């Protein structure tokens, strides 16, 4: 993904790869659709990915990644299912930042 050559990323995906976004109720079926979607996604510049954390084993993994195109700044939490050494399924969440809903400063500290 870091190369922004999304077609080459299909080498690590199964032929019946599936990506789901529960927040928008959307699904991408197939490695080719995944590559074409990412290549067509409107961006202000090159996508840069910063891995915050990855945990996993032979069949499951979770990643916390920050993404930017120099204008958009986002974070994705992704749950991977791996079959025969390739990614078969991803369920991905794109949380949005928000301000605390009430004054809780006596219990919490802000992360900068």
Give average pLDDT, whole number.
95
User: What is the share of helical residues?
Assistant: under 10%
CATH architecture title: Roll
The total domain count is 1
H/E element order? EEHEEEE
Please tell me how large the radius of gyration is: 16 Å
Give the overall silhouette: globular
Here the CATH topology equals Nuclear Transport Factor 2, Chain: A
Please count the helical segments: 1
**The top level CATH class name:** Alpha Beta
- The N- and C-terminal alpha carbons lie at a distance of 27 Å
Low-confidence segments, ≥5 residues, pLDDT <50?
A: none
The share of residues in extended strands comes to 35-45%
The number of distinct β-strands equals 6
**Strand order within the widest sheet?**
2-1-6-5-4-3
SS-derived structural category: mainly beta
How does the major sheet shape up? Answer: 6 strands, mixed
Verbal overview:
It is a single chain. This protein has one helix spanning 31-40, and strands spanning 13-21, 26-29, 48-56, 60-68, 73-83, 86-93. It contains one helix and six strands. The longest helix has 10 residues, at 31-40. The two termini are 27 Å apart. It has 112 residues and is mainly beta. Strands 2-1-6-5-4-3 form a six-stranded mixed beta sheet, covered by helices on one side. The chain has one domain (8-93): Nuclear Transport Factor 2, Chain: A. The model has no long low-confidence stretch (mean pLDDT 95). β5 and β6 (86-93) form a beta hairpin. Helix content is 9%, strand content 45%. Pfam families: SnoaL_2. GO terms for molecular function: isomerase activity.
């Amino acid at each position: 993904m870091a190369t922004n050559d999304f077609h080459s990323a299909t080498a690590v995906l199964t032929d019946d790869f599936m990506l789901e976004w529960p927040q928008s109720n959307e699904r991408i079926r197939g490695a080719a659709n995944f590559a074409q979607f990412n290549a067509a996604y409107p961006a202000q510049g090159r996508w840069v990915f910063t891995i915050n954390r990855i945990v996993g084993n032979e069949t499951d993994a979770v990643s916390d990644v920050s993404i930017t195109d120099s204008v958009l700044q986002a974070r994705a939490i992704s749950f991977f299912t791996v079959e025969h050494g390739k990614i078969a399924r991803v369920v991905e969440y794109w949380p949005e930042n928000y301000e605390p809903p009430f004054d809780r400063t006596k219990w919490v500290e802000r992360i900068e």
